[in-house]
Write a structure and sequence with these properties.
The chain is of the alpha/beta class and 217 residues long. The chain has two domains: 20-161, 3-Layer(aba) Sandwich (Rossmann fold), CATH 3.40.50.300; 166-215, no CATH class. It has nine helices and five strands. It has helices at residues 11-14, 27-38, 55-65, 80-89, 118-127, 151-154, 168-182, 191-197, 202-215, and strands spanning 43-48, 68-73, 105-110, 137-143, 158-161. β3 (105-110), α5 and β4 (137-143) form a beta-alpha-beta unit.
Amino acid sequence: MQIEIGFPQPLSEKYRPKRIAEFVGLEKPKRIAVKLAANPYPSAWLFVGPSGTGKTTLALSLAAEMPAELHHIPAKECTLETVQDVCRKCHYSPRQPENWQPVRFHLVLVDEADQMSYPAQLAFLSKLDATAFPPNTIFIFTCNATESLEKRFLSRCRTIEFSSYGMASEIVGLLTAIWDKETGSQERPNFQRIAKDSCNNVRDALMSLEVEIMAAA
């Protein structure tokens, strides 16, 4: 008999949002994601913003809430061959991999799209054109900046800005709730300082909190 041993999770994984409504801040991206989940349509989206602002996680939550068959292309793995392969798969009826139940849409998530190969970007120029767009498919590209992306590529995407501006108070609330749940200690660290030092990057703030929790008496 195989015995599974449970190991502690990093806080950034343990408290990763699973649903759109659970995200800290990001009011505009959340409103758009909720409406797209409820009424999906073939389209391409570009999530632009600093690292740690929830671009990839929001896309994953969107795929789960639609639900959609997810095709996740990790950072720097988007080659011409990858684009051709994923677009071929999107011509089949979408299904959920875990139970093979049919769903309405495919969702293709390309992380760090600004790092994709140039041939891959050119291939997407063709695939995102109205005449060649795969059926029942939503593309979501994430990136920190757009300088390396062709203007023709950008013109085919609906751009959503992800900003950490104004998130400090919500991050402090999140850190406080996690601290109380994980420790119960009343000797709390300076959550405002943690949020400020992380530049309102939720992932960085959670890693700093993890260190504080481990150092707590």
